[in-house]
Amino acid sequence: MxxxxxxxxxxxxxxxxxxxxxxxxxxxxxxxxAQLSSEAFHGRGFVKKxxxxxxxxxxxxxxxxxxxxxxASYFQNFNIDIxxxxxxxxxxxxxxxxxxxxxxxxxxxxxxxxxYQLYQPVKFSVKSFFEKSHNKEVFVFxxxxxxxxxxxxxxxxxxxxxxxxxxxxxxEVRSSRLIQTQRTYELKYPVLQFAGDRWDSTATxxxxxxxxxxxxxxxxxNVIAYIEGEIDSFYVFTAHYDHLGRVGQDAYxxxxxxxxxxxxxxxxxxxxxxxxxxxxxxxxxFMLFSAEEAGLLGSEYYVSHPLFSLEKIKFLFNLDMVxxxxxGLSVVNGKEHAKASELIESINAKDSLFSDVRIGKGSANxxxxxxxxxxxxxxxxxxxxxxxxxxxxxxxxxxxxxxxVQEIIRLLNLFxxxxx
Length: 420
Ligand SMILES: [Zn+2]
Prior knowledge:
There is one protein chain. Helix 7 packs across helix 9 (405-418). Helix content is 30%, strand content 27%. It is built from nine helices and 16 strands. The protein has two domains: 25-81 and 216-418, 3-Layer(aba) Sandwich (Aminopeptidase), CATH 3.40.630; 83-214, Glucose Oxidase, domain 1, CATH 3.50.30.30. Bound molecules: zinc ion. Zinc ion (ZN) is lined by residues 258, 293, 391.
């Protein structure tokens, strides 16, 4: 078909308006992700109180969009025990290792400073291990270069029972992917995790300076706000804002996809409601949780200290890692809610939002879990495809596509219109 000139003008105008609208909202989402994942937020962990910097930022944004606290404060404080790593300097055979690229310090590690021989057993047996002292040797548990089945089998139980405390430190050489965590306890020794392709299996000596600080009863906070609707029950949108923090001055975990993306999407949703000037039919609550990475602690605390009856929740969407999407959208726990999942699929089909929607079964892998456990209808959305950075120093704003935020928001808004 050939376009007539007048049609071209109309179409261009339409495209221009459409583009400007989209660009505006994506710009705001992008700004939020950029801020939350910047070094000034320290990886939104518990070194340098990154969690508090992030929580304050979120409250300021929610205030801008007219979302009100439920009760006296936007903050819901709770206490956690948390182990933090405040320093990490490691050399192998005199060569300095790069934190985040060559190795990570396991989150439950404790402090150690000194020079040690490496104990890399080709064959391992518990009996021979205890026949001599290993207090001057760092134990190398290497599943890549030495595939000793006995060692692999024994390692987890040795580690759990603290028998590994017979050595000053442990090096784990695992697959090529380094994945950081948060831990609420400290071991008696540090554990260094090396990427398989970065580890020299002939190395003999390590110089190590790792410091931890275990903080019992650290006060962190959830951020809760809402927009009042006409009917006193709630659509709830949750996302965790915490991430893996930083290791001293040496490295931080930006967490752009995990989960600055979810927080920024919720803030964008709040902004769109504010700018629409409309009152929603139902209340809309925004819950931004802390300490998800340490074991869903913020949402667990909320569910046992809810700010309104959990029975008033009509439906809950948890957004965690929604900054990609070329391969589609996943709905964790969707199989538990057939009616809601059918609606999600039909909205998606009608509006061509995602190339693929996968309705999955339940899993305790994000903040929807404790709500579901208490009988609240809840699903967890994440997007698929694009960069695969996960729990590492590379999950940055610069490489996050954020290309499906508009589609997610449209899906959520249409769901609220149509769900009964
Ligand atoms: Zn995570």
